[in-house]
Amino acid sequence: IRPAVGIDLGTTKSCVGLFRDGKVEIISNKQGLRATPSCVAFTEMGRLMDEEAKNQAALNYPNTVFSAKRLLGRAYEDAAVVKAEGNSQVQVSYKGAEKSFFPEEISAMILGNLKEMAEDYLGQPVTHAIITVPAYFNDSQRQATRDAGVIAGINVLRILNETTAAALAYSLHHPDNGERNVLIFDMGGGAVSVSVFSIDRGVVEVKATAGDSHLGGDDFDNCLVSFFMGEFLKKHRENISHDRRAVWRLRTACEAAKQTLSSNIWSWARQVPSPSRSTCSLPAPPRHPAAFVQHPAHAVSLVEG
Ligand SMILES: Nc1ncnc2c1ncn2[C@@H]1O[C@H](COP(=O)(O)OP(=O)(O)OP(=O)(O)O)[C@@H](O)[C@H]1O
Ligand SMILES: [Mg+2]
Description:
Layout: E1 4-8, E2 13-20, E3 23-26, E4 36-37, E5 40-42, E6 47-49, H1 50-55, E7 64-65, H2 79-85, E8 90-94, E9 97-101, H3 103-122, E10 128-133, H4 139-151, E11 155-161, H5 162-173, E12 180-187, E13 192-200, E14 203-212, H6 217-236, H7 244-261, H8 265-271, H9 275-279, H10 289-294, E15 299-302
Parallel strand pairs: 1-10, 10-11, 12-15
Antiparallel strand pairs: 1-2, 2-3, 2-4, 5-6, 5-7, 8-9, 12-13, 13-14
Helix pairs in contact: 3-4, 6-7
């Protein structure tokens, strides 16, 4: 029997694993890490993936593609795409020629890379996969994810909600606890989602769900970048917003600072006073607020990318 793998196709990082001998195995990448950057870079010489693509981004920013998941399955005239992401087809210079790719094609490259990681790990071809998507994804975003799988040569057995996958993982790790309500909180790179499930002997039922499709780590980074660009303008009278390389370097520094500061919430609050509060809002109220009250959680599970 050929094994099926599970793929978490994330905005900033992706992950591949399989269920074998009664337990979940997460497959590490070449660098020994369980989460791999969802990043593709195009150069004169060829295509680079994951850490290799991310590491050269400062030098080749216009041809390095991040966050393709945010464009997946969105109509080109979609106001959100125009506002937040500009053009929904990605234009790059590749081997000396101008090329454009659909988000599905970029996602297919990321999926293909994860498939290869799984094949190296298992020593056999991997043809079947389950791919997770955010619970808020609509039909066309789900279809686009499926299409990306097909382009990568994967038979997509199922598209599963990310929070449901987390609830299933929770139930596997806590098998005989009787009926429980579990709150899953997933703060990703692109979005935040919160769901309450009731879990009883492996049967997982969604009780309530809420979230914001444009409130993830990327948005925190954006807030910091605009704040510091403003500071730079005030102090040095120079607007760096058109210098993509400078903006990328600032973004990398902001993300690193965010990660360091997040270990100490008080230093975060003191040092970065307003931009995050004024431009980032908290998730919208749950679609079924009563459900959160009716189903008090016995356990809270935080999702790590
Ligand atoms: N210690 C930390 N403190 C704050 N943020 C962190 C920390 N570590 C990682 N992050 C942020 O988490 C985000 C990545 O999370 P994750 O890998 O769960 O996202 P994802 O699965 O790619 O995105 P999504 O689920 O939205 O598609 C990045 O924005 C990263 O900067
Ligand atoms: Mg995620």
